[in-house]
Here is the input.
Amino acid sequence: MTHILRLVRRYPLTLLCIAAIWYLCLIKPPSISLLQMKHSDKVVHCLMYLGICCVMWGEYWRAHTKPSTLRLILLAVIAPICMSGLVELAQAYLSGGTRSGDWIDFIANTIGVLLAVPIGLYGIRRLFHIKTPQS
Here is the structure.
């Protein structure tokens, strides 16, 4: 229980973003006439994961005085990519036919995660004046 409370205190925005992504990905999507461009939803997927990962990087840098490269890779790269795959599987098998899993969405999500890496490593880290992480 203490570990969960510590996570909530250290990563409140990240957890909120994760909950929002799960909610948005499992509800029946509204039809939006603004996004008529082909594959425009892929841009949204990419931006959504870019945003959540930037939040993760920021909260990680804020919460840790001695950052760990391994933890950063697990938290801000591998975990969001795995979550993206789980979301697509949940859409395919648990949404009752209102959503469909799409592996191109998974690729767009992964691109968003990977775009956040240099932003997190160089931009956000500098914002918090954190030295290079230890292995």
